[in-house]
Amino acid sequence: MSYLIDSENNDYLLMGNEAIARGALEGGVHVVSGYPGTPSSEIIETLSDAATERNLYVEWSINEKVALEVASAASFAGLRAMCVMKQNGVNVASDFLLHLASSGTRGGMVLVACDDPGALSSVNEGESRTFARLVEIPLLEPGDFQEAKDITKWAFELSEEIRNLVMIRSVTRMSHASGNVRYGKLPHTDAKADFRFDGPLTDPETGPVISMLVGASKLQHGPQQEKIKKAAAIFEDCPFNTYEGPEKPELLIITSSACNLYSREAVHLLNVRDRVGILKLATTWPLPPGLIKRYLSCTEQILVVEEVLPILEENIKILAAEMAHETGPKTFYGKNAGNIPSVGELNPDIVVSALSSILDVEYRTISGEFVKKAAALVETGAPARSLELCPGCPHRASLWSIHNALAMDGRNGFVCGDIGCYVVGLLPGGFNIVKTLHAMGSGSGVAGGFGKLKQFGMDQPVVAVCGDSTFFHAAMPALANAIHNNSPFTMVILDNRGTAMTGFQPHPGIPVNAKGETVPSLDIADICRAMGAKVEVRDPFDLEETRQALHHLIEHEEGTKVLLLRQACALSPERKGKQRYRMNVDEEICIGENCGCNRLCTRIFGCPGLLWDKEKGVGRINDIICVGCGVCADICPAGAIRKEEVV
Fold first, then answer.
1. For the sheet containing 283-285, what is the strand order?
2. 170 contacts: CB under 8 Å, gap ≥ 6
3. Spatial distance between the Cα atoms of 344 and 536, rounded to a whole number of angstroms
4. Cβ(87)–Cβ(115) under 8 Å?
5. Which of 115, 406, 418, 550 has the lowest CB atom count within 10 Å?
């Protein structure tokens, strides 16, 4: 664990998230909380490894709002705290975030939000930067891996100087790429938590911590805005805002975050360093007006390079309009002008394309003929591969049973989904059963709404699916609402024993915490029964038992029902490397394409552990990746797939 080495001025290769974690350690953090979500998860995992040695409290919270509340308690008691989440989580935390920004903080407090441009690991590429302006807190964006560490350390100092939360925004390529990082010294702190509340009501240091006095906004909103003005003044001399290029550039690039790296590479590739300057901003909200004015005065053309929405671009344009009488008219390029796309990740090629068109510089790329040949090879040479669940995934068995139960019911039933590996239920790999997909827990909320449409003639059975971590994160309120309002839908909870999609982080249903310590676990079935739902528990690998339970619950039209399907993920520590059955195919019995639907096992059920032997016209087992769950033996109509129990 090189990020725990207590030495100065040595370089280490760190992932961006590890650099952020190291920065928190150098900043003297005491309490860290968060909810797992790619690309942010490694920050908490790194700090959990350091928790014992550095005397930290590190927690995987039930959701992002609670995580922010847990971290704030430490700040209120004078400790330094950090809260970590991905961009979707900031939406979940936003209710408390709005209040926290108003009440202010005491010990240094940092919110790290890791965005996912291109939605590489998300169902959207939502912007967390908008929240900084919305709730009026400072926003910092590191432009390389060294800054990821250094800015995190500085953010705690900034927070204590302005007595408010500071937000750091990372992106996928900053969080998950790696670079050299020079270490600073790890502090030795013996901090003692002490929450003071004996002072006057309006004293932010000694009084009660409240977000707003009713009817007296000037007493708190006014000081809050003074804090953001103080941050803007500090940002004027921030060492993390840097410029490189000529004194009077023909074109000024203003950029931040990983786009700084893309911009520098593009300028290098085009060899236009004598024509183009790069102003890299680490302090992207509030913008330091004096700094912006200084560089706007040096040029007439500005290209703003950022991911994803033109937030930085629009804020700069506002300042440029206010300063126009001093800096003169400017021509802006960027997303609004169409030079830079407003969706997806950026890369050096995109910035090169924008620069070459603005500067009229010819850049020789790969030939069009090469592109055509490469595309043809992909179409003809590479096998098609759809999004699939892993071999032996219990979700495949669960979705198979739900699909068959709804088909046999015959009333055009459907499934409402949410976020997890089971989003594959939208696709052929999940049998196309999921028909709505939104936020975590929303499948159950939407299904509860559908369940109340009987009075308008709707008689379709409604099923919701959610994971075990999602149940605790966001589906419990939806279930409580449905039970209270007597909504007749079936909630299927896919309990695979951990937050599997992001790396098996624990949740309240697991008897360990972020440090691996034994803690009380909450039984999902008992919770649902206590809430008043009719509950059944099954093993999804037992297809017949699962199907019968589904039929029973779907046909029982009164009230809210819960089917808990319990089976550990094939990649979990609980099952990994352990094979229950040894699988094989009896080629004499296999009827291949004559099974009634043209290869039920490999084309329809679609487990990657099943292969089609074209020469023999039979299915076979991929012994390398088969995990021996045994489900394929139960779906084979000819009984050709055999399972032998491994002793």
1. 57-60, 31-34, 81-86, 109-115, 166-171, 139-140, 283-285
2. 16, 17, 20, 39, 40, 112, 113, 114, 115, 141, 142, 148, 257
3. 43
4. yes
5. 406
Contacts 24+ apart (CB under 8 A), 200-209: 204/103, 204/104, 204/106, 204/163, 205/106, 205/163, 209/76, 209/103, 209/104
Regarding pTM above 0.85, the answer is yes
All residues at 6 or more sequence positions from 603 whose CB lies less than 8 Å from its CB, including other chains: 597, 612
Number of H helices, E strands in the chain: 21, 24
- Distance separating alpha carbons of residues 506 and 515, to the nearest angstrom: 10
pLDDT per position as a tens digit, 358-386: 999 988 766 768 878 877 777 776 666 67
DSSP strands (E only) in 299-451: 301-305, 331-333, 414-417, 434-437
The count of other CB atoms within 10 Å of the CB of residue 417 is 27
Q: How far apart are CA 454 and CA 451, in angstroms?
A: 7
pLDDT in tens, 184-212: 999 987 889 998 888 887 788 888 888 76
DSSP tag of 187: P
Asked whether the CA dihedral 585, 589, 590, 596 is positive or negative, the reply is negative
Give me the amino acid identity at 283: T
Decide: 195 and 76 in contact? Cβ < 8 Å. yes
Check if the beta carbon of residue 288 is closer than 8 Å to that of residue 319.
no
Q: What is the 3-state secondary structure (H, E, C) of 603-638?
A: HHHCCCCEEEECCCCEEEECCCCCCCCCHHHHHCCC
DSSP 388-402: -PPTT-HHHHHHHHH
DSSP characters over 444-461: HHHHHHHHT-GGGT----
Span of 110-119, 252-261, 602-611 with lowest mean pLDDT: 602-611
Distance in angstroms (rounded) separating the CA atoms of residues 143 and 147: 6
- 69 alpha-carbon distance from chain centroid: 19
| 39: its two tokens | 């690309």
